[in-house]
Amino acid sequence: MTNWEPILLANVNRPNSEKIETYMRYGGYEALRKALKMTPDQVTAEVKLSELRGRGGAGFPTGVKWGFMPKDAPVKYLAVNTDEGEPGTFKDRLIVERDPHTILEGVIIAAYAIGAHRAFVYIRGEFFLGVKRWIKAISDAYQKGFLGKNILGSGFDLDVSVHRGAGAYICGEETAMIESLEGKRGVPRKKPPFPAQKGLLGQPTIVQNCETLANVPHIILRGGRWYASIGTEKSRGMKIFCVSGNVNSPGNFELPLGTPLKEIIYEHAGGVRRGRDIKAIIPGGSSTPFLTAEKINTPMGFETLQAAGSALGTGAIIVMDETTDMVEVVRHVTRFYVHESCGYCFPCRIGGKRMLSSLEKLAGGKGSMRDIEDLEYVAKGMYGRTFCPLGTGMAEPVLSALRLFRPEFEKKTTKN
Amino acid sequence: MKVTINGKRCETPAGKTILQAAQANGIYIPTLCYLEKIGALAKCRACAVEVKGNPNLLTACNTPVTEGMEIFTDSDRAVAAQRYVVDLALSSGNHDCMICEKSGDCELQDAAYFLKFEDKDFRRGNYPTDIDDSSPFIRVDHNRCIMCGRCVEACNRIVVNGVIKIINRGFDSRIGFDCDDPMGESSCVQCGECTQVCPVGALTNKKSIGKARVWEVEKVRTTCPYCGVGCQQELHVKNGRIVKVTSAEDGSPNKGRLCVKGRYGYDFIYSEDRLTTPLIREKKGEFREASWDEALDLVAKKFKDIIKKHGPDAIAGVSCARSNNEDSYQMQKLFRSVLKTNNIDHCART
Ligand SMILES: Cc1cc2nc3c(=O)[nH]c(=O)nc-3n(C[C@H](O)[C@H](O)[C@H](O)COP(=O)(O)O)c2cc1C
Ligand code: SF4
Ligand code: SF4
Ligand code: SF4
Questions:
Q1: Dmax over Cα atoms in chain A, in whole Å?
Q2: CATH number of the domain that residue A188 is part of
Q3: Is A275 contained in some domain?
Q4: Which of A362, B35, B84, B222 could bond A381 through an S-S bridge, CB–CB 3.0 to 4.6 Å?
Q5: How many domains does chain A have?
Q6: Contact, B307 vs B299, CB < 8 A?
């Protein structure tokens, strides 16, 4: 691994880190100046070269996505996903609150690359401070000529506005977010057409996660090749890992992709509370399957976690020590997804509720082997069969817990 | 385009979905939300099929066929996935088929039947009653609703009345009228389009309840007598009496839509007060029954008398909105060129 230093969280601990003056004092908006001297295609090519993959959960190659934008479309949009709802995930919030300009600079460069003159920031309604910070950052950027007409004399125009969500996890899913931006009920759309073909108001739209965009200025300044030198073969660059659960120092840690789980937990997050052993780890937010302690040496990358039976997701690591009641964990997580299911498709709407009722019985000590069977039957039937990935993400933790910790479920049963 | 479905060679036009290709070839795939005129919502996920070369199950309703596609609607994996959805749907509401108006004509019942469900294969829901009886013609039973979304699409996109919305989310989502008002207090115009698209017994016609089972009725295609539009409808007739009216989905001009009068206003046919022959008023003021010839001769004679005495402008005609354009045209022709007066108007203008 080559030398690395934090790029995404480099500013967050500086005094007045959210201010445009602070951002500019440390080289902010230099990447924008450079990008505007390049052609949009050159910018896209640089991002492709960096092999940057989306940090919102799906890990789609960012430059490739930009390449899908039709060149000749008269109206195109960029939507910035600040909905951050996946349990365990709190990285976008940190950047938005402490260093919003690092994302905004990425927004402007991305809009320039894809030819969008209008960008929308979709922010989770509960991020009160984040909303303020976004609005302030945008208005300061207008003042300095980084937004509006003829940005820095380049002839490129861009307007950005902020749209608050009303508190639904599903609105983080890109097509549901587009519906919500249009003022409709937050329900996913059928894909294809993908947003890049037909998105917001029927126009080609790119939806991008905050953290993804925050990488872009650095890629432009230091080159895609430099960025691609960090990380592992299929997982390039820096990543913010959100560590929570039974660790001594929970928090956000920016490290190269491919850093082993063990290092993150023991060296950065201060190890496990009271020196206990680990029972389970959720490596990428609560919709990714559990890992057991044996997988502690797995590097945190897309391909490596997949090989270990889980996924990188949002990079949110939740550590559970040996005292954890796994049935209770699964009940808790499932309750979240049942509450957040939009209700559009049958397996997620009905199956979720049915799984939860089995889990509540089991957790409350009133369950039977039949409840375990039904739980497994419903989760298996749901997996891969829902309209959007939320339903599959709800089945994942249930199925992996039944695979890895079945005796704990069985021990909870009181009748047959 | 050539495809095989369950090993059988089938011919299908390009641009069709797997579901359409199967249906055209008489192969049943369970669906709970699909309706041709609404299009694929892909909500219920019941139409699971396997296609050779694709590791995932596909939804037949929104997957287009491609040349040479090998489709399996009856593989173990496809059938298990189909049954799974039907089981979930059955467990999510009170499916009291025995007393349900829709029994025998219900797409959920059909799916369970054609998938050969046995009692052990599904869970039965048991929820507190949740019936909205507030509107004059439509009974809403929320616990029979499977949230297929068809009524929402129909009310908003087909009749464009914009009344039905989805309220809440997830398992608690339900259909609601305006801001979740009782149907009878909402802006609903009781057109009944939603009852026509509902696959189950959640939205039923109050006037029909308890009158006839679906297999007892004879369907008679006719034209609605109420106005000049001429909507095509189906009368559901049992023992010579209309028990229900639905619209003919294939008929112009209404293409499956009806208004409240056409769908629910059929009682007048059986009214005791209804005139069935012309009546002539006698000198003493009493009416007597007469034949059409006698009555028309009398009218013609009176018209002639009036014209002779007072001139043609002493007569005026008002054409009725229940006549169609052609009849109204004939009416003004009669007045202008036969009776020679321009005193002709239409009731919708007066
Ligand atoms: C149920 C669900 C919730 C999601 N929530 C978020 C979210 O809160 N933030 C986010 O950036 N992406 C979220 N996503 C992923 C987005 O759909 C989309 O892939 C992402 O915003 C694309 O940006 P990226 O390529 O930069 O990651 C969610 C996806 C699903 C299926
Ligand atoms: S899986 Fe279905 S019900 Fe669940 S959130 Fe997605 S579309 Fe909505
Ligand atoms: S009767 Fe007509 S207007 Fe009323 S809810 Fe049904 S479709 Fe909408
Ligand atoms: S009332 Fe009928 S048509 Fe409407 S969502 Fe429920 S089941 Fe579907």
A1: 75
A2: 3.40.50.11540
A3: yes
A4: B84
A5: 3
A6: no
Is the distance from the beta carbon of residue A387 to the nearest atom of ligand 2 less than 6 Å? yes
Kindly tell me if the per-residue pLDDT of B35 is higher than 70: yes
What is the rounded average pLDDT for all residues in chain A? 97
Closest partner residue to A346 (CB to CB) among B89, B168, B169 is B89
The model's pTM = 0.93
Indicate the CATH number for domain B125-210: 3.30.70.20
Whole-angstrom distance, CA of residue B190 vs CA of residue B188: 6
Confidence (pLDDT) at A1: 47
pLDDT in tens, B85-121: 999 999 999 999 999 999 999 999 999 999 999 988 8
Rounded CA separation B169/B217 (Å): 39
Give ipTM to 2 decimals.
0.93
Q: In the structure encoding, which two tokens stand for residue A213, read together?
A: 């965009």
Tell if the CB–CB gap between A381 and B84 is shorter than 8 Å: yes
Residue B350: is its pLDDT beyond 70? no
Residues in a beta bridge with B131: B141
Shared domain check, A386 and A261: no
What is the number of the ligand 1 atom nearest to the C-alpha of A53? 25
Residues from chain B contacting residue A350 (CB–CB below 8 Å): 88-89, 91-92, 171
Residue A209 CB partners (closer than 8 Å, separation 6+): A54, A55, A56, A57, A81, A92
Number of residues assigned to chain B: 350
Pair A218, A365 in one domain: no
Give the residue from B203, B22, B51, B208 showing the smallest Cα distance to B114. Answer: B22
pLDDT at A416: 59
* Cα–Cα dist B49/A304, whole Å: 32
Residue-wise pLDDT for A55-85, tens only, equals 999 999 999 999 999 999 999 999 999 999 9
Q: Does residue A166 form part of some domain?
A: yes
The last residue of a domain, from among A187, A206, A228: A228
Q: Extract the runs of DSSP E, i.e. beta strands, from chain B.
A: 2-5, 8-11, 48-51, 58-59, 70-72, 131-132, 138-141, 164-167, 174-177, 203-205, 218-223, 232-238, 241-247, 279-281, 287-289, 317-319, 344-346
- For the record, the structure tokens of B309 come out as 């005495």
Closest among A25, A29, A1, A32 to A11, alpha carbons compared? A25
Separation CA B10–CA B7 (nearest Å)? 9
Please give the distance of CA A387 from its chain centroid, rounded to a whole number. 20
CB B183 within 8 A of CB B135: yes
B2-91: CATH class: alpha beta
Residue B12 in contact with residue B25, Cβ under 8 Å? yes
Structure tokens at B236: 């559901």
- Inspect the interface and report whether the beta carbons of B42 and A350 lie closer than 8 Å: no
Closest A-chain CA to B49 = A385
Whether the predicted pLDDT of B348 surpasses 90: no
**Residue A248 in tokens:** 């001594």
Q: What is the pLDDT of residue A3?
A: 65
Residue B277 C-beta-side C-alpha neighbours within 13 Å: 12
Pocket test for ligand 2, best of A334, A337, A344, A354 (most atoms within 8 A of CB): A344
Give the pLDDT confidence of A89-104 residue by residue, as tens digits: 999 999 999 999 999 9
Amino acid of residue A57: G
Token digits of residue A288: 């990714």
Q: By the CB < 8 Å criterion, does B60 face chain A?
A: no
